[in-house]
Design a protein that fits this description.
One of its GO terms (cellular component) is Golgi membrane. It holds the Pfam family Nuc_sug_transp. Its main location: membrane. It is a multi-pass membrane protein. InterPro entries: Nuc_sug_transpt. It is a single chain. With about 350 residues, this protein is an all-alpha fold. It has one domain. The chain starts with a helix and ends with a helix. Helix content is about 75%, strand content about 0%. About 35% of the residues are buried. Helix 2 crosses helix 13 and helix 5 crosses helix 10.
């Protein structure tokens, strides 16, 4: 991938932004300069608003995911097929992307950047993240043979560190020392917030469980960073076109998962067996969350996604107090404080960088 070209474009954008900041407070020489200044400020503000909007949407949608998953259970278990639900999530994301493209074609016409037809050289990169996510999701079924649900949530925080490391290695993006410290604090804060009386069992996790947790973290981090790389490889390419191809391959791999895991159940009970209104809402939530993730990667980066999902985890716990009578522990308040400090340090480190 042409990372050098992407990096040069980022440098040009930063240079333009620095020129705008430097010229603030200085007299303008003419109306032409005034128009340039207004256009530059408007562009920067527009990008900041779009980045903030998609990040906020991802946080809200992610915070409600776990709640909908819990509500979708009956008598403590899923009556519907999880693999069919995942397939429908990918299908819905694909349909929403196609609907957005249709609207764009109607309003703006078909251009080179929003044209759905594309070359194999551009499309052949999309099966890789789809396959990585499929393997990670399958590993989730096997890791519970070695850890319980609370222990899994704690081990899942390894994704934070793996994302930061792979973000630096693959995308060649620099993080300041303060940002690295904030990243470690974020991981520690999320882990602390999830501690309970049985958390010591995590240290007793068998070697196989630790290996699976580390592999899952690496797969998740690599899939996220790789997806960001292919989405940003062609910045002018419409995000809905990129999403469409990404979700098409996601549908294909999830169809394979249905054949491997739930073929007999689907054939005997039906594709939609056990579905309810909550299940439908959960699928809709997952679909919108997936689109929000891709937009965050397009207009922000994986680091923003990590912080967004971490804050969403805390919001989920707070909402669970009112919905399920969940009791917040001292560890949760301490972890929430650490996460808040991490978010603040990351913003400070970004300004210094």
């Amino acid at each position: 991938m042409d990372y050098k070209r992407i990096k040069d474009q980022n440098k040009e954008h930063d240079a333009v932004h620095d020129d705008i900041e430097t010229s603030r407070g200085k007299p303008l020489s003419g109306s032409a300069n005034s128009m340039v200044m207004l256009g530059g400020n408007s562009s920067v503000q527009s990008k900041w608003k779009r980045k903030s909007a998609v990040t906020l949407a991802l946080t809200v949608l992610t915070s409600s995911q776990a709640i909908l998953i819990v509500w979708s259970k009956r008598a403590g278990k899923y009556e519907y097929s999880v693999t069919t639900a995942n397939f429908l999530v990918e299908a819905l994301k694909c349909a929403l992307s196609l609907a957005a493209l249709t609207r764009i074609w109607r309003n703006e016409g078909v251009t080179e950047d929003n044209r759905l037809s594309t070359s194999w050289d551009e499309v052949n990169v999309y099966p890789i993240p789809a396959a990585l996510y499929l393997i990670k999701n399958l590993l989730q079924y096997y890791i519970f043979a070695y850890v319980d649900a609370p222990g899994y949530q704690i081990l899942k925080n390894l994704n934070i560190i793996s994302t930061g490391i792979l973000y630096r290695i693959i995308l060649k993006k620099q993080l300041s020392e303060i940002q690295w410290a904030a990243f470690i604090l974020l991981c520690a804060g999320c882990t602390t917030a999830q501690l309970n009386s049985n958390s010591d069992r995590v240290l007793q996790t068998p070697f196989q469980g630790w290996v699976m947790a580390i592999v899952m973290a690496l797969l998740s981090g690599f899939a996220g960073v790789y997806t960001e790389a292919i989405i940003k490889k062609r910045p002018s390419r419409n995000i809905n076109v990129q999403n469409f191809w990404l979700y098409v391959f996601g549908m294909a791999f999830n169809a394979i998962a249905i054949l491997v895991q739930d073929f007999d159940a689907v054939m005997n009970k039906g594709f939609f067996h056990g579905y309810s209104l909550v299940t439908v809402l959960m699928i809709l939530n997952h679909a919108l969350s997936g689109i929000a993730v891709s937009m965050v990667m397009k207009y922000a980066d994986n680091i923003v996604k990590v912080y967004s999902t971490s804050v969403a985890m805390l919001l989920t716990a707070v909402l669970s107090v009112f919905l399920f009578g969940f009791h917040l522990s001292l560890a949760f308040f301490l972890g929430s404080t650490v996460v808040s400090v991490a978010v603040y340090l990351h913003s400070i480190g970004k300004l210094q960088r």
